[in-house]
Amino acid sequence: MGSSSCGTMDDFLKQCQQSGDAAYAALKSLLEKLEDPSTRAEARIFLSNLQKRFDTTESSEQCFHTFHFRIHDIILGDYQGYQRRKTLKMMVIPSIFVPEDWSFTFYEGLNRHPDSIFKDKTVSELGCGNGWISIALAENWSPLKVYGLDINPRAIKVAKINLYLNALDENGQLIYDGEKKTLLDRVEFHESDLLSYCRDHNIELERIVGCIPQILNPNPEAMSKMITENASEEFLHSLSNYCALQGFVEDQFGLGLIARAVEEGISVIKPMGIMIFNMGGRPGQGVCKRLFERRGFRITKLWQTKVIQASDTDISALVEIEKNSRHRFEFFMGLVGDQPICARTAWAYGKAGGCISHALSVYSCQLRQPHHVKIIFDFIKNGFQEVSNPLDLSFEDDSVADEKIPFLAYLASVLKDNSFLPYEPPAGSIRFRNLIAGFMKTYHHIPLKTDNVVVFPSRAVAIENALRLFSPRLAIVDEHLTRYLPKLWLTSLEMKAACDVKPSEAAVTVIEAPRQSDLMIELIKKLKPQVVVTGMAQFEAVTSSAFEHLLDITREIGSLLFLDISDHFELSSLPGSNGVLKYLAGNILPSHVAIICGLVKNQVYSDLEVAFVISEQESIFKALSKTVELLEGHTALFSQYYYGCLFYELLAFKLADRHPHAQRECSKARTVEMIGFASSAISALNTGELSISELQNSSVIHMDVDQSFLQIPAPIKAAIFESFARQNLVEFEVDVNIGIRQFIKRHYGFPTDGCTEVIYGDSALALFNKMVLCCIQEGGILCFPSGSNGNYVSAAKFVNANILDIPTQSEAGFKLTEKVLTSFLGAVKKPWVYLSGPTVNPTGLLYSNDEMRGILSVCAKFGARVVIDASFSGLEFFTEDWDMWNLGDSLSKLNFYPSFSVSFLGGLSFELLTGGLTFGFLVLNQPHLIDAFYSFPGLSKPHSTVKYAIKKLLGIREQKGENLLEDVEEKKKILRSRFNRLKEVLQICGWDVLQCCGGVSMVAKPTAYLGKTLKLSQSSENGGANNIADAYEVKLNDSNFREAILRATGLCINSGSWTGITSYCRLTFALEDSEFEKALDCIVRFKKAVLGD
Asked: Where is the Methyltransferase domain (predicted)?
């Protein structure tokens, strides 16, 4: 074209002839001219002349080998009736991928979509290479914008040249389409590692298409090189053939880069967006489909064909994968072969000169629940990438997907947004109870309140706990509901109260009854039970008639009625007819009736259960709330989350009730006095300092709960999420037995071999309470050292155990000593000694190995049964001169009385910082104790998801996983610092503080306050938790100190009545940072309120 701003053609070609790098430099210079509007037309004419100079196939090939580039035409369509541009002009250079069968097949797959799929859409092409598909998309389907992305910087430069080649005609003039737009308006090319450009620029996409490498580089080190435009041509070209390991399970099939692209795509694609990928069939069609399906996509195969395996692609990496796994890749001999051969055979056949092919498919993918799936992957990309591999969002049944995916999204949000899990009352998560009440109100027109609902771990636990609360002389229980009741209750024939029966030996007598209402009513009339627990036959549950008959007869007889509706309660937007709920819509629930409902009907976790009890009698609600706190602790939080999600999904789309609820009728007056709470239960509930449940005020600061509110470590969150995300867990994956036994032996030296039995429960407290029942059954006396966990003592009192306090002394830190124990046990028959250690709850002091050896020797001498509780241990932070336990060694040296035994109780909430996971274990080594324990079958056991997470965490700890161990050590440092700060503030404010060495609680004596008077006026501005209208004045002592500091400041602690150490209060300090600061401020404010400035 003569001399111009682009130089002469001969000069240009002379530069290109020198090397591929020189040719690239010349083309870059030409691109600069194309990008400058003032030289654009001239540069485009130069390119036209350049193509004309090499206008035959032979000369084009010669140009590529001699001058390191070529310009050729790609035919888009030449069939009759094709209306669009038929050819594109495309330049290629050696360092980028030359369009071939792979990309042509991909384009054919895109062509199978209707024209509207890309029309006015924002599209991105991954691995755009020289840009021909991006340009063809823009030319044929008029998208709003196409972003062509490639990691190869040279590919992007050539793609931009090709954009100008096709956006301008041969004279350098812009070509406009029917919408008066040009390709320059519709297409952009950017250097990008997959979708990083779109993510960095907050670009939301409606379509993502990609044809990217799917074979691991046989030379992994090569992939670690920096990708720059000055890298070698061979390396840059390899980026089109090979990919590096991406950290996904699909890496083993060479699909890791596709997996990463899909997960990045989820974050930037719009909810109704579509991804389209070219998938080589080498790993097998099932593997290719699963890559998308397990990430929540529905897929459609648009097109499939066979292509010749590129000769420049080394498949030896696939041969190596086959060597180390059972997987076999799929190749074919030639294009017509229909029997697959493995990679090893294909490699050998190819080396011998044979032609091998593989399937090539185009998949179109769309998220099934885009909003929820996006939340899940947003959680994963924020530090939880390891969860991506076990994640499985593929479902054959849509109803399963509709339950599980929203729950996983909610769980991901909770774990991502909360550094710790908040305090929830023992009666159940407030949110969960609100949702239950909301469901009843919305779907069944029953105006329940949150405080009408108490949550239990299971239906069986709810029934047993209710019976223990009332301890009836005689109860009639539906035969379908007696399976998990204590055997003694089902075998006792004591139907009338006997005056010679000691309270500790008294047992409930349960008579089994058929579920049919007329037979049940006949039994009630004849036997006159104090409590009736029954369900309803299916045919009777449709109407309220049978229920009303039961109401009437139990009212007449004076029986409490617990009616189970579990089998008839439907979590559905169209729940079936339910006579009981119909009745409650028009009538207030009578005071002698409570409704029990076990939630077990879910599509995802068949063994996951939560139960709730409905009562509109305030006294029963409060008593049941305290009962679950004493006997179970809490209902598993994540189980409440799961069912809470089901309720939420059913309520989320409903409008607020537009009609007022009908006035409900009051129940008939009772003519016969009903049974009251058991005297032992009343005593425990009234004297035990249980959770503050009646204050609906978020300003209450809880220093009275054995729970850590410190930040949950990332490995814990990952394990929790993974446990729910997995599908089809096998027994081996949830078998914690070996891990727990190793853990106990390594940390405490307690023998777990031979005839030992390890029993698992939702919490250590639930297991402890079963041991208390064993003690009662044996006629033992349960002995607590003064300075034990007050809730454990109250729980034992609740079930009417025979209890004695073992005195402890301040000079020994209120720990048990050999001398005191020897003196004490000499006067006790059948002693059962409870001991919290190594970390003592609540004092936080530590028992050394020598101290334990001495204590055990005394217990052995007197034949005592010992229950060691290590559930509060694992966070020891002052361990100088403290020797770890070796219980096995201590026990092996004892000569003991035959009745002597040691049971080991523990949990992992503190040891592994398990956050909202609760998990308890109990080791028994006496056959008769094991038999006694199993005679109380109503134990709430950990769900398989909990056991999966615990096993994973135990494995990480066993392998000394750095992140988890570092987190544990960090938490110990925090607790040590917290104790020192709290100690300092307390001492300044007039408290005497007992040294603490571990755990999350300490004790201190408010010496300066005892005997002083606290006065709070009606307009007091001390910041208390209660909005109490009346003024408050009290002389401070053990019995009122807790209420006083709560009223004055909103700080909730436990007093000496709880600790069992006169005047020493318990304060927990594993609070969230801001809450801890508020607690310190409360202590200072209380000093001002009582002692002045």
From this structure: 119-169
